[in-house]
Amino acid sequence: MRLFVALCKKRMPNGHIYRGKHRLYKEVTKDDLRNLREHLEVEEKNMFYLRHSYLTPEQSFGHARALGKREENRIKIVTTRKDYYEHVKLESRLGHLRVNEGWD
Fold first, then answer.
1. Are the C-beta atoms of residues 13 and 20 closer than 8 Å to each other?
2. In which domain of life is the source organism classified (predicted)?
């Protein structure tokens, strides 16, 4: 009986089975290789489009000016910018802590 158990028992690592020096590893399957290959093909296609852009640098020069981006950004900065900060008082900072006035 002990010989049967010794021969048929699957050897498990000591401690946590997915961490450490003697951990269990997931076997690489054909599906994993296929998914990796597809992922790399998509990445290669993306890199191709990044390397060969639709417009040349000469054609893309000044496109933001033609769309009016600089003027939009200037208007947004002018409207949101404040020249001074508002006065901060202790009551305004700690006003949310006040529930009621008296201890009656």
1. yes
2. Eukaryota
CA-to-CA separations, 91 to 38, 66, 72, 88, in angstroms, rounded: 61, 50, 38, 9
Structure token pair of residue 27: 């076997």
pLDDT category, 27, cuts 50, 70, 90?
Answer: very high
Q: At residue 99, does pLDDT exceed 80?
A: no
Tokens linked to 20 = 């450490």
The Cα–Cα gap between 84 and 68 comes to 29
According to DSSP, residue 55 is labeled S
Helix (H, G, I), strand (E, B) or coil at 99: coil
Nearest to 11 by CA among 27, 2, 23, 20: 23
Length reported for the chain = 104
pLDDT digits (tens, 9 = 90+) for 42-74: 999 999 988 887 877 787 787 777 778 888 888
The residue whose two tokens read 């010989």 is 3
Contact status, residue 22 vs residue 14, Cβ threshold 8 Å: yes
